[in-house]
Amino acid sequence: MKVHFLGKTPLGAIVSGTLAKKEEQYKVKAGIVSPDIGVPMIVEQIAIVNGTKKQATAERFVEWMGSAEVQGEFAAQFDAMPANTKAVERANESVKELYANLKAQPLDWGFIADNVELWVEKIELQIMK
Fold first, then answer.
1. Distance separating alpha carbons of residues 63 and 67, to the nearest angstrom
2. What's this model's pTM, rounded to 2 decimal places?
3. Contact (CB, 8 A) for 90 and 96
4. Which of 73, 71, 69 is nearest to 82 (CA)?
5. What span, in angstroms and rounded, lies between the C-alpha atoms of 63 and 66?
6. What is the pLDDT of the chain when averaged over all its residues?
7. Mean pLDDT of 89-118
């Protein structure tokens, strides 16, 4: 987790599933910045590599990993919000409450992919120095 201090208020980005542990670790109460445009949300993903020689095995793995049972167990253990809507009931109440109050920001992944290297360079050379 990177934390930057703007005046006396620390500001940083953090994975929602680790928020409570970080608050406890650092003895702070974090606030959520939730602009009208929404909050960037990254959804865990899995894919089959094009051209795999083990297509059937890969498909079975994807089906297993994406199942409501496995997603529900993962959500409960790691304070995550599962992408599989049938697994949401297994998410911890604090996570369900957090996500009920957040709006997902629409992201243009093509634009992001085209510009991410420039943004990283700018951050590293101009902001983090």
1. 6
2. 0.67
3. no
4. 71
5. 5
6. 87
7. 92
